[in-house]
Specification:
This protein is of the alpha+beta class. It has two domains: 66 residues, no CATH class; 165 residues, Sulfite Oxidase, Chain A, domain 2 (Alpha-Beta Complex). It is 27% helix and 20% strand. Strands 2, 3, 6, 7 and 8 form a five-stranded antiparallel beta sheet that branches. A hairpin with a 3-residue loop joins strand 2 and strand 3. The longest helix has 21 residues. The two termini are 32 Å apart. The structure holds the ligand Nc1nc2c(c(=O)[nH]1)N[C@H]1C(S)=C(S)[C@@H](COP(=O)(O)O)O[C@H]1N2 and molybdenum atom. Molybdenum atom (MO) binds next to loops.
Length: 263
């Protein structure tokens, strides 16, 4: 069982470290778009979290950067597509077993009771009624085999099934001109996404994993799956969805992860 310990920032001159990191990016990365992307999205917390390195002085910045730029190249190649569609894969490429990740260990996975579960839908929506799981299962479902990329440095291919989120938003009469869709989870996790990603053709409100009801560790009863976004943007155990124009932030985003977190 893995207990996640996020790297700490100790005694580092943040501005100097970031300036150093940006210089190194400039020197090491050939493609101008990629260089610009990395330089723009770089924060000290992000650098430390993305690399898994504890940045304790300015000389470790280089080591951290080498690790993320290597990983980031692969991650960006996987998530970037000019048509804005993430790659889909054959079933034969599914990673078995699919990894578990959360801000706690697998022995602390939240058990959500199916019978009493109701999804809350609030904010800028016409229909604020709660949803039982059966109501969600009654909507048209889709399966999708895509790659999940976690900034801790792993990626894996999985098969999720569920309701296209754009359909769900339409059904509840969401104001799709609003800026954000926010999610509250049965653990203390929360996150939020931009409306264009919420309406993206591959964004699914998933109820199943590999043809079975979503197991607790993968987010029972429901995980929002977006192959165009990094792992931490994909909330598990969703208990409330809200549409808003007020920036809702997120569990990791509030600690320095990039909010957009995707392509
Ligand atoms: N509710 C909740 N959702 C979450 C997390 C979490 O800790 N709690 N972790 C995120 C991160 S960082 C990752 S990589 C994925 C992991 O999903 P998996 O366990 O299905 O691999 O869930 C994301 N969604
Ligand atoms: Mo992650």
């Amino acid at each position: 069982m893995k207990v996640f310990k996020r790297p700490a920032l100790v005694g580092v001159d943040g501005e100097a470290a970031l300036a150093e990191a940006r210089k190194l990016i400039g020197r090491r990365i050939e493609a101008p778009e990629r260089r610009a992307f990395l330089q723009r999205s770089l924060t000290l917390g992000g650098l430390s979290l993305l690399s898994g390195c504890s940045i304790s002085d300015n000389s470790t910045v280089e080591a951290a950067l080498m690790r993320i730029s290597r990983f980031n190249d692969a991650a960006q190649a996987w998530i970037f597509d000019p048509n804005q569609l993430a790659p889909i894969y054959p079933d034969s490429m599914i990673t078995r077993p699919f990894p578990f990740n959360a801000y706690y260990g697998e022995d602390e996975v939240r058990e959500v009771d199916e019978a009493s579960y109701r999804l809350e839908v609030t904010g800028l929506v016409a229909d604020k009624r709660n949803w039982a799981l059966a109501d969600l299962r009654a909507m048209p479902q889709q399966d999708q085999v895509t790659r999940h990329i976690c900034v801790e440095g792993w990626s894996a291919i999985g098969k999720w099934g569920g309701v296209p989120f754009a359909e769900f938003l339409r059904r509840v009469g969401a104001d799709t001109s609003a800026k954000y869709v926010g999610f509250k989870c049965a653990d203390d996790y929360f996150t939020s996404i931009d409306m264009p990603t919420a309406l993206h053709a591959q964004t699914l409100l998933t109820l199943s994993y590999d043809g079975q009801p979503l197991p607790p560790k993968y987010g029972f009863p429901m995980k929002l799956r977006m192959p165009t976004k990094l792992g931490y943007k994909n909330p598990k155990h969703i208990k409330a969805i809200f549409v808003t124009n007020t920036y809702p932030g997120g569990y990791w985003e509030d600690q320095g992860y990039n909010w957009f977190g995707g392509s």
